[in-house]
Amino acid sequence: MTLKVENLCTYFFTRAGVAKAVDGVSFEVGRGEILGLVGESGSGKSITGFSVLGLVDPPGRIAGGRILFHGEDLVGRSQGEMRTLRGKKIAMIFQDPMMTLNPVLSIETQMVETVRAHDRVSRAEARARAVEALGLVGIPSPDERLAAYPHQFSGGMRQRVAIAMALLHRPELIIADEPTTALDVTIQSQILAVIQGLSRDFGMSLIWISHDLGVVAGLAHRIAVMYAGRIVETGETDTVLDSPVHPYTIGLMRSVPANLERGEPLTPIPGMAPPPLGRPAGCPFRLRCFAATAACETEPEEEATADGHRWRCFHPQIARAA
């Protein structure tokens, strides 16, 4: 198992109170596996990814749980120890490639420095690895494009460069935080094909963070649905999408136009997700749920089937009927 997260709690300790951004999250990612982490904005997806990499800034901190990378707990590691892992063993692809790329440095300078930050190699060897990585993600004439600056690339090409930088050390785990959200559908499909091929060819594990079920459906082996800092349903992609159990998962699917007949109106989830400082007791989704009863005022326990399909809901039979 490449990564195993157990009961992860990441809280932000503010003057107004404790914001539980991630509250008891558990999941696993095997070698070469792609896990789709889906949910609305504010559900805790990105903070989960930042927690794995040790990138949560004060006043936030990991308040509990374990993050096991090849069996070794990353919680409590110093920043120096985490820097040896970031980029080398675990890499991240951000939604906006300009968060990765420095606008005043050439692509060559940035990629060569990224290689030499972890490996003692010559500049020529580092440059050769940069050319190879750009070629893997489909950048034409990679040797020539190294001399370019980020503003000389289109949005899709900049994202490919960011992916190439994440691949320089052949990391065992990549966390991709909605990297195709701002791209058009054609470029998005090209990048998804690149990601799938690289994961398959190099055995890299991937956590794909997204709010788009359509993207995750064609990419991930397994799906974990997050709401209000918790995973409310998880399982094999086909199982979760074909037989969803949690009302929130059903609500997300009803909001996808592709699931409807032509002319049929969308059925959005009513209301708004509760803020981290004002989450209700019991099931956090109960105030928006079509299946909620008085029982939902208490915290539901996790249930599971033999095939690994797990959920937190008192009324799966109502959800199945829906």
User: If helices are DSSP runs of H or I spanning 4 or more residues, what is the number of helices?
Assistant: 11
Order of helices and strands: EEEHEEHEHHHHEHEHEEHHEEH
CATH topology label of the largest domain: Rossmann fold
Helix content: 25-40%
CATH architectural group of the largest domain: 3-Layer(aba) Sandwich
Work out the radius of gyration: 21 Å
Query: What quaternary form is this?
Result: single chain
Provide the fold topology.
Layout: E1 3-14, E2 17-29, E3 34-38, H1 45-53, E4 60-69, E5 72-73, H2 79-85, E6 90-93, H3 107-116, H4 123-136, H5 142-145, H6 155-167, E7 173-177, H7 185-202, E8 205-210, H8 213-217, E9 222-227, E10 230-236, H9 237-242, H10 247-254, E11 302-304, E12 310-312, H11 316-321
Parallel strand pairs: 3-8, 3-9, 6-7, 7-8
Antiparallel strand pairs: 1-2, 1-4, 4-5, 9-10, 10-12, 11-12
Helix pairs in contact: 3-4, 4-6
Family: Belongs to the ABC transporter superfamily.
Membrane topology: Peripheral membrane protein
GO molecular function, one term: ATP hydrolysis activity
